[in-house]
Design the sequence.
């Protein structure tokens, strides 16, 4: 899988996380904050081999920018 960096959180310094990547497989890879709250996880049905991360609303702009790679 090849990753193309789309955007890092401009309000997160010095780490620049969360981060959005576009793949060459027509999908996204999102780096974010690990969700560890058990009440939150209990509301989800996460199968083995999957996980979830949290990102802020301000990161949504990068999904649209990343779509331009497919055009």
Sequence:
């Amino acid at each position: 899988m090849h990753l193309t960096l789309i955007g890092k959180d401009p309000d997160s310094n010095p780490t620049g996380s969360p981060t959005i990547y576009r793949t060459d497989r027509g999908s996204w890879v999102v780096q974010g904050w690990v969700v560890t709250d058990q009440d939150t996880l209990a509301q989800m049905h996460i199968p083995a081999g999957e996980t979830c991360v949290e990102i802020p609303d301000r990161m949504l702009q990068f999904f649209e920018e990343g779509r331009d790679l497919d055009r």
Notes: Strands lie at 3-8, 19-23, 28-31, 33-34, 53-54. The chain has a mean pLDDT of 87.
